[in-house]
Each structure stands twice: as C-alpha cells, then as structure tokens.
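Technical annex B. To support the medicinal chemistry partners, we prepared a structural model of the target in complex with tetrahydrodeoxyuridine, based solely on the information shown next.
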Amino acid sequence: MNEHLYQFKYKTLKLSELNEQDKTLVFSAMKSREQAYAPYSSFWVGAALLLSNGVVITGNNQENAAYPSGLCAERTALFYAKANYPQEKILKIAICGDDAKTPQGEITTPCGNCRQALLEYECTQDSPIVVLCASTQGNILEIGSIKDLLPFCFELLYKETD
Ligand code: THU
C-alpha cells in the first residue's frame, strides 16, 4: 500500500490587491451577477472570461421552472465564448456568487459540472485557465488552473494534432 498527498497552491487576497486587468474582470463578473435570472434559488452568480484576444465575455445563471434546464453562470459565459470565439484561448475566469436578497459575502467556487466543462477547454488549448473567485465584498480566491480543482480528472479529448 502506498499513501500519497495531493496538494496545490492557491492565493487569498483582497480585490484591491489585484492588478487592473484582474480587477476589471472581477467587476465584470459582479456586474453580470446583477442580471442573473434566479427566481428559484435566489442565488445570483456572475462570471467573466478573459480571452486571448482581450475580449471579455460575461454570463450569469439562468434558471428554469423545469430545474435541470437552467444553466450556471460559468457555462453560460463559457459556451458563448467558445461558440463565438472558437480559436481564442481562455486565459481567466472570474466568478462572483451570493444570495440576491441577503448577501453573506461568501466566495462561490465553480460546481463540478462547470469544472469539467472548463477542464475540456483547458486541455484542448493546452494552457491553464486561472480562476478568480470573488465574494460580493471583495475577498478573492485565486487558483492557477482548473486541473487543481479536479484531481484525477476525466479526460477524453479530441485533439487536432491526433
Ligand atoms: N450556480 C452557478 O451559476 N455557478 C456555480 O458555480 C454554482 C451554482 C447557480 C446554479 C443555480 O442557478 C444557483 O446557482 C443555485 O445553485
């Protein structure tokens, strides 16, 4: 029997400590959160993606009376980005989530489905996607790669070089 230890580095910081580009990305996620359609959960989430051409794509959670038909903020932004800018790499994603009525200022990290969807593009583009999770009150959790959020991840990928 062998025992192993899995560890990864992440940063916790304040919004004011981010560089201007990251700050702008987080503000975009916060702004997009305000347009979420979440009447069932009242949990509003915004996401903003920075693409390699400098374009920022935003998205928010869109719920539905038939619950599974809704979509998280991250995938709303992600699929729009890849549908419209398929050649661009995704450099970063900022995420901001909190209760709409009584915000607690908690940091929201991507759900498992969103991690898997992000992983697919991180692997195909062969460079990390940085994750910036922000609370509505400006506390930041920075993770350097989606792979850090999915240990022993499942990859089954089409690569153009294959
Ligand atoms: N949600 C997101 O948009 N992103 C996440 O990473 C976590 C959850 C949404 C889904 C649902 O509309 C609401 O938050 C409550 O789960």
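Notes passed to the chemistry partners:
DSSP finds three helices and six strands in the chain.
The chain has one domain: 10-149.
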